[in-house]
Amino acid sequence: MSMSPIRSMFAVAGLCVCTAAAAAQHDGHKAHAPQAATPHTAEAVPYMADTCPISGQPLGSMGAPVVREYDGREVRFCCKSCIKKFENAGKDGWKKLDAIMIEDQLPFYPVSTCLVSGEPLVEDGEDIAVDRIYNGRLVRFCCKSCVKDFLKNPEPTMMMLDAAVIAQQGKHYPLKTCVVSGEELGGMGEPYELVVGNRLVRLCCDGCEKKLLADPVKYLEPLNAAWEAQGMPAMLTKAPAIKGHEMMDSPMKDMKKKKSGHDDHADHDH
């Protein structure tokens, strides 16, 4: 099956280009001091968790979730009383939310190497990755130095991540029907494809995109179940090359490994 043009949440959110300063605010969430939410917009990065970040209760267990938007990022709460608690928690609230999203997306992460340096994310059987949530997406790095390099120009790395998701999940995509409409994929022409929460999603048409993004947890449930039943394909050892966006040279490539452990990351800040 030929691949239709892919739509990434990196693009859907209207956040393809960020200044280094703005992006840096999301790393460590230094900008998320107590603040009021802004009105919800259709362009917000959708909330990719099924629980409230404050109470931990399943969304919907106390009625319809309360939706708020912060810096272009959607957050859903079980009730109104959790909103102030979240805002007053500052960066701790965002760390808790990011931890939920990292746990959700980790099984779908497509590549075993750092997208910035090309260095492995595992050494001697130990996971050494530095995990960050960027525009609602898990991105894994070999060290904090690569996080800083990424934030200077995130777009090429996010394009590489999208390409890796497609390469890993496309050939073995486990569903033959649209997760929104239930229609057979291909029945209305080439499937419409998106990357949501590091999952490749195939829809019967672009008209289903709005419903998917309005409630991604609901519509991704059958896709998650299908992958669990089938088993995820092996992780890629290297992301597909993106023309015009070469991977940065790693300062480690010219260093000889002198000892076991993390010595060959000695110049990297983990």
Automatic annotation (TrEMBL):
**Domain TRASH per the UniProt entry, residue ranges:** 52-90, 114-154, 178-216
Which ranges are annotated Basic and acidic residues under compositional bias? 261-270
InterPro entries (alphabetical): TRASH_dom
SMART domains, per this entry? TRASH (SM00746)
Q: Where is this region: Disordered?
A: 251-270
Query: Under what name is this protein listed?
Result: TRASH domain-containing protein
Its organism's taxonomic lineage begins at: unclassified sequences, metagenomes, ecological metagenomes
